[in-house]
Design a protein that fits this description.
51% helix; Rossmann fold; globular; 6% strand; alpha/beta; binds flavin-adenine dinucleotide; Serine Threonine Protein Phosphatase 5, Tetratricopeptide repeat; six-stranded mixed β-sheet; 24 helices; DNA Cyclobutane Dipyrimidine Photolyase, subunit A, domain 3
């Protein structure tokens, strides 16, 4: 009989409760990762995610060489994979982290639960980054989160004999579609794997964090001044506890307390948002606040396509989208701007934006993505409504146009004074700069002032409605933390 440790969004050996506990049992341990076709083909995911996962798994395989074992990495439906392993080796228990995922992973977990029950396999699921399953409200949540984060990191220590032996792994391999981990390195994207994750963590806490707060909203400078830890946290290459611990270690020595404390508050937001989604998983499809269901937003393919390609005619919006397409990363403010532009100024639904953005964010984390998407779209009814002005944000956060010109090189032909609003160029100026609006760069696809006013009027009407207030109260009751309101 064997125990299986099933890796999902927890691609590390250190501070890994399922692995740590499995190694304390008598049964040999089989390490498993499954590339599930339902996720390979899901619109939230794209090649960039699978490349990152493969890079991370490849690093784990190298770490495991010293223990003469390896992770069995297969492609297949999870139920079929477990059935086959059970037939071959007889599984006693499966150890894994709880997953706050999308509907299809939730459904997969329900089917697996039934399967494991029918095969008398125990499924031991562990709390992931302090997110608690089955909570009805958040009154005691912050205490449990703090308690979880203050516990010691779980070391990885094993001996060769604790793992299923290589012959058994080899014979299992014959039963599956194996996955080749070789990938073509794309230097535009952050690389998966523990050594790179630790480099980002050390680099941030040794050099980069002092300008965190100052540059967090600036699209170009944030790329250096923010931690850039998000993909490593989202895919579990680092545990949140490790990151928090590392940040606490420099608290006494730092001369930049404010910047460090701002960063630490973002670390707390991670589980805060995921917990919200864990309790409201319907938020993948439905408005948090049902009062907003009456909003009518007719689908407009031309507008949606222009936004997806970064061809709206608003330079900061287009540069943000193209940057995301090219690099998989965007700072918080520009993510919020993209969503606000789409849902308010283009007057399209957040549902229409969700999987496009998810497939582009290398750090896609359903539990942050959906609550943030809805917060920026204004469909929670409990947060301040922010309809970002793409032009004002452009002057404020990219005054020298460096970010815009990096991702929209065609605008390099015109003087800086027009880069934020190229539609202000007269026909004569266009010909003087050998630049044609509509050909070298799109004309604005909407009239901003009109659509802004329309969005603001329509949303405020709902915010002030009795139904929105009642729904808002219910949401607050379930999600307000002790000590906040
Ligand atoms: C529409 C939208 C979608 C988003 N989708 C994701 C997503 O899928 N995955 C994701 O990790 N972040 C998401 N964010 C939050 C945020 O933009 C990113 O976490 C951040 O920009 C990542 O960069 P960083 O690692 O340098 O962050 P830092 O500012 O250095 O923060 C460190 C860590 O704290 C957490 N964090 C930071 N900001 C937030 C936040 N606002 N909410 C929750 N946790 C936060 C992340 O784990 C991040 O890695 C989204 C924001 C918006 C507006």
């Amino acid at each position: 009989m064997v125990n299986v440790v099933w890796f999902k969004r927890d691609l590390r050996l250190q501070d890994h409760a399922p692995l740590h506990l499995a190694l304390q049992k008598r049964q040999p341990v089989l390490l498993l990762y499954i590339f599930e076709p339902m996720l390979l083909n899901d619109s939230h995911y794209s090649e960039r995610h699978f490349r990152f996962i493969k890079e991370s798994l490849d690093g784990l395989q190298k770490q495991l060489e010293a223990y003469h074992t390896q992770i069995l990495i297969v492609e297949g439906k999870a139920e079929d994979v477990f059935k086959t392993i059970h037939q071959q080796l007889s599984i006693k228990s499966v150890f894994s982290h709880q997953e706050t995922g999308i509907q299809i992973t939730f459904n997969r977990d329900k089917s697996l639960k039934l399967l494991f029950k029918s095969l008398s396999i125990q499924w031991k699921e562990f709390v992931n980054n302090g997110v608690i399953r089955g909570l009805q409200n958040r009154k005691t949540w912050i205490n449990s989160w703090e308690n979880f984060m203050s516990q010691d990191l779980l070391p990885f220590s094993a001996s060769q004999g604790q793992f299923v032996n290589q012959n058994q792994i080899n014979s299992l391999k014959g039963q599956f579609n194996l996955v080749n981990l070789s990938t073509e390195r794309n230097l535009n994207f952050q690389k998966g794997g523990r050594p790179t994750a630790l480099r980002y963590l050390r680099g941030f806490l040794q050099d980069r964090y002092p300008n965190y707060q100052k540059n967090i909203s600036k699209p170009l400078l944030a790329r250096k001044s923010c931690s850039r830890l998000s993909p490593y946290i989202a895919w579990g290459v680092l545990s949140m506890r490790e990151v928090i611990r590392a940040s606490i270690e420099i608290e006494d020595k730092t001369n930049h307390k404010q910047a460090l404390s701002q960063f630490q508050s973002r670390l707390r937001w991670q589980a805060h948002f995921i917990q919200k989604f864990e309790m409201e998983y319907r938020a993948e499809f439905q408005n948090f606040n049902s009062a907003f269901n009456v909003l009518e937003k007719p689908y407009n393919k031309a507008l949606v396509d222009a936004w997806k390609k970064g061809e709206t005619g608003f330079p900061l919006v287009d540069a943000s989208m193209r940057c995301l397409i090219q690099t998989g990363y965007l700072n918080f403010r520009m993510r919020a701007l993209l969503v606000s532009f789409f849902t308010h100024l283009l007057w399209q639904t957040w549902q229409e934006a969700s999987s496009h953005l998810a497939s582009l964010f290398l750090d896609f984390e359903p539990g942050i993505h959906y609550p943030q998407l809805q917060m920026q779209a204004g469909t929670t009814g409990i947060h301040t409504l922010r309809i970002y002005n793409p032009v004002k944000n452009s002057y404020k956060h990219d005054p020298d146009g460096e970010f815009i010109l990096t991702y929209l090189p065609s605008l390099r032909a015109i003087p800086l004074e027009f880069v934020h609003e190229p539609w202000r160029l007269t026909a004569m100026e266009q010909s003087m700069y050998n630049f044609e609006l509509g050909k070298d760069y799109p004309r604005p696809i909407i009239e901003m002032d009109t659509t802004r006013q329309h969005a603001s009027d329509s949303i405020w009407k709902i915010i002030q409605s009795q139904r929105s207030k009642m729904e808002g109260k219910k949401i607050l009751k379930r999600h307000t933390l002790r000590g906040s309101h």
